[in-house]
Amino acid sequence: MAVVEDAYDAERLLRSAAEHSLRAFIEPNATFLAERLHLMFPSPSSAHLLATAHLREGNCSRAAEILRPASTSENRYLYAVCLVRIGTPDALRDAEAQLRGPQAQLDLDRASTSVAPGGAAGLHLLAEICLRTGRKDEAASLFKKAIKANPTLWVAFDALAKMGIVVAAERVLGTGGDAEAMQRLLLQPQFDNAMSAGETPRRKNRPTRDRPLSMPSARQEMPNGNAFRTPARMDVNQSTFVTPSPMPASTCNLNTPAAPMQTVGAPARRANRRAAALNNSTQQLIRHSGAGMEDSHVRNPNDLFATPTATSALPFASGEVRDRHSFRGEVQVKIPKTRSAIAKERDVLRSRQPFEDSQMERQHLGAMDLIRALGQIVSELGRFRCQKALDLTERLPRVHRHCGMVLSIRGRAFLEKAEYAFAEREFLESLKNEPTRMDGVVEYYSTVLWHLKREKQLSQLAIKAQRVYPISSSAWCAAGNCFSMQRDPDAALKFLQRAIATSKAPNAYPYTLAGHEYMAKENFDSALSAYRQALHIDERNYKAMYGIGQVLQKQEKFALAQSHFRSAILIHPLNANLHYHLGMALSAAVNASSTTDRFSKSTKHALIPALAEFETAANLDPANPVPRFERAKILVALKRLPEARRQLESLRDLLPKEAEVYFELSRVAKQMGDMKTALRSITIALDIEPKDRKYKKALETLSSEIDANGIA
Fold this sequence. Notes:
Blueprint: H1 2-23, H2 27-40, H3 44-56, H4 60-67, H5 73-86, H6 89-100, H7 120-132, H8 136-149, H9 154-162, H10 169-173, H11 178-186, H12 194-197, H13 266-289, H14 339-352, H15 358-362, H16 367-382, H17 386-393, H18 398-401, H19 404-416, H20 420-433, H21 442-452, H22 455-468, H23 473-485, H24 489-502, H25 508-520, H26 524-537, H27 542-554, H28 558-571, H29 576-593, H30 601-620, H31 625-637, H32 641-654, H33 659-671, H34 675-688, H35 693-709
Helix pairs in contact: 1-2, 1-3, 2-3, 3-4, 3-5, 4-5, 5-6, 6-7, 7-8, 8-9, 9-16, 16-17, 16-19, 17-19, 19-20, 20-21, 21-22, 21-23, 22-23, 23-24, 24-25, 25-26, 25-27, 26-27, 27-28, 28-29, 29-30, 30-31, 31-32, 32-33, 33-34, 34-35
GO cellular component, one term: cytoplasm
Keywords: Repeat, TPR repeat
Organism: Chondrus crispus
C-alpha cells in the first residue's frame, strides 16, 4: 500500500509541477518534468503533456514523435497540429489522416462536428490542410462548418475573406446573440482539461487521506472525488447564465451535503463546522422554497444564502426578476430568467434610461455583433472593395475604430487604392496606439513609405521594428524595402530571405517583394520562381501575377503576359495599374506584329482593346496622368487626331515640364497641318531636354519641311 501511495504522490507532483511550469512559461523545466512523468507513468495524458511542452518550445517534430501513435481524440488533434506546423507534404497527408480517422474515410464535411478531433478547431485545421493542398472548395466548406459549430472562430472567417469568397457575415456567422454563441462554444472540446483528463490505473487506488497540494482549480479534483467540468451540453430552456455550477449535475444533490475537506487543526475544524451549518441552511431553504432547484439553475452558490436588502426588494434594481413562489418570509431566491424575460427587461431599461449619445450606445455592442461587423469589413477587403471596407470601419464603436487592428485594415485599404498618403496616416496611428504590433502593419507600412520615397522614415521604421521584435518576418520585410529604396537589390534580397525563413506560417508577401528585386536585377528566372512560390502560397496574390506578366512582357511573350494581367484583374478589377499594364501589353503586341504597315485596318482594330484598358485605368485613377498619355498615343495611331490633341493639351497644362507631352503634341499638330504649334511644341521639348537626340532630330526634320514648303 505504501508503494502505491508513493507512486501516486510522485505522479501527482510531476504532473502538477510540469503544468505549473507551463503556466509560468518555463518551457524547458516543463519539458524535463513531463519527460520524467512519461517515463515513469506512460499514458495518453502524460504524452499529451510532454508533447504540449515540446510544442511550446517550438519543437514540433519531437512533439509529433511522442504522440505517435495517437490513441485519444485530444492526442490525435495535437498530433495533427504538430504535423501541420511541420508543413511538409508527407506531414500534411498524415495530419489529414489523423483528422479524418484511422481509415481516412470519414467525410468531415458531412459528418457532425463531435466526431472530429478537436471539434470546430479540428475542422479548421483540416480546412487549412485542404487550402495548402489546393482544394479550395473543400476548404471553404470546412471553414463554414467550423464557424457554424463555433461562431467565435474568427480565424476561419478571416481565411474565407482572404480566399475572396463572396459571403455575408450574417450568413456565415449567423444572426444569433452572445448567449447562443456561448452555448455552441460550450459544446466544443475543452482543451484546458485535456492534460488532466486521462488518468493512469494507479490513480484508482489512491488513498482517501491524500490532500490536494493547493486550492482546487479547473484542472484539479474536488475533495469528494468530483472535478470541475464544463457541461457537455446546455438546454436552451435552462438558465441563460453562462457560468456552470462548480459541481456536476449528475453527482450534485442539494439534499445530500458534500463531504467537507479533510483538514487538521482547530481552524480547520471550525471551517468544517461552518461548512456543515451552511449545508443545513441549504436544505432548510430548499424545503421552504417549495420548488426543487437543480444546481445548474444557480449562477453562484452564495446567492442561495443572500439576505434581503432594501435594494433587492425592487424588481429591477439588480437586474433580477422575482417569482411569487420565491418568497417565504424574508428569504429571497434568484430564479433563472428566460430569453423572453431578459428581452422584456432590456426593453424596459432602455425605455427608462435612453442613451444620451448615440456613440455611447455603440460602445455596448454584443460580442457577436462586433465579430459580425469586423467580419464584414475583412470580407470586403478580401474582395478588394476597399471603399466599402473603409465606410464600414467608420460605423464601429470608437474604442474599436481606433485600435491597431482596424487602423491597419484601413491602411491596407488605402494602400490597395494607391492612396499612399492616407495609408501612411493610418499605419502611423496604428503604431502609435500599439507600438508592438508588427505583423500586418510594418511590412505594408514600409511598402507605403517606399512608394512615397520617404527614405528616412523607412530606415527608422526598419530599425525600430528590429528592436521591438527582431525575429518578426515583417521587420525583415521593412529592412528589405529600405535597401530596395537605396538601389541595393542584393542586400534587399538577403533581408527578404530572412523574412521568408522567420515567417511563422507560409507567407506570400516576402516572396513577392523578392520577385520585384530580382526584376530590378533583370534576373528573370529567379523572379519567376519567387512569384510562382508566392502564388503557390496564395493563389489570389494578384501582385505576383502582375510580376509574372511583367517578366513575360520583357521577354516579349505578349500573349502569356496578357493572360497573367487578365488573371490579376479578375482578382482586383479596381486596380488601375493592372489595366494600364494590360493595355501596354496589348499595344506592344500590336507593334511587334505589324512589321509592314503599322496603320493598317487590322492593326487599328487590334489597338481598340488597348485603348479600352487605358481609358479604364484613367477613370479608376484620375490623378495619374500616365494612362491618359498612353491613351492619347493610341488615339494618334487610330487617326483620331482632334481627340488626341485635346487629351495632350490637357496633359500639357497639367505637366508643363514634361518634354514627352510636347513632343507628342508636336506630332499631332504636324499631322493636322498646324506647323506653328508643332514647331513651338518641339522647341519647348528641346528646351526641357536639350541633350535628347530624338527631339533634336524631330526639330531638324520639322524645320526642313517648313523651309521646303515656305511656311512662315
